């Protein structure tokens, strides 16, 4: 293993809890973006410089091992190293949740301001970054700069599938205004996004999907049929504590059995069906708070029991 990488592993003991959580997100993000034999460019300032894909995977395995070891340890009440503290089930971790930005950079920046104000240490995005609004390129640049972990949504896939056709179509300026013509860099970013992503944060096992983990066009609403909620429990309840979803443009918190489902609503806020919201999930206490991104005010979202 490269000496530089070995030195980095030693640095992990010196990280603060917030820095440790960010490293988990950054590594996942880069693994999403990299392909075999691709070198990884600068990740996070002075903490990380350049790693190969093999080194990133080794680091990912190292992180997973540390987290699993701590989760399984009977000595959680004993003093732990800084690495263990980052996944302590007793420390409150604030996660920023966003979805369905649809090229609305103003709303995105307002959400980030709320997250910064409230002390969020990690941000997750449940897809639909592009289409409808014209500022996807700026959004993606910020996502990369801040190490936000993202998955793909149905609109992201639609824009990718039609990009070549739209670039040679009539009225390209109008298509750019609609967020349907994007830069090559944004295309490359969207191509690397997974359909789902797994996280372990504060001892909670999290699965993020767009509509549902198996479909990016099937949404979950509080009033969705009982059979759909049963599918979620049957498929994921055994090894998942939290599902983070998007697609519906409606904020929601629901519980079915031991499975929690959270949706931050949509950053995009042009039509009557859009919520123009983001959310913060505090773990391990499962405290879900929804914010209006324009006013910064908290919006009440009742818990749906199914």
Question: What do these coordinates show?
Answer:
- The radius of gyration is 19 Å and the shape is globular.
- Strand 4 (122-125), helix 6 (136-146) and strand 5 form a beta-alpha-beta unit.
- Helix 2 packs across helix 3 (53-72).
- The strands form 3 sheets. Strands 5-4-3-11-12-13 form a 6-stranded mixed sheet. Strands 6-7-8-10-9-14 form a 6-stranded mixed sheet, with helices on one face. A two-stranded antiparallel sheet has the order 1-2.
- The termini are far apart.
- The chain has 2 domains: 3-85, no CATH class; 93-301, Purple Acid Phosphatase, chain A, domain 2 (4-Layer Sandwich).
- The protein has helices at 3-11, 17-33, 53-72, 82-85, 105-118, 136-146, 154-167, 172-177, 184-191, 226-236; strands spanning 39-40, 51-52, 93-98, 122-125, 149-150, 197-201, 204-208, 242-244, 251-256, 259-264, 277-283, 287-292, 298-299, 303-305.
- The chain is an alpha/beta fold and 306 residues long.
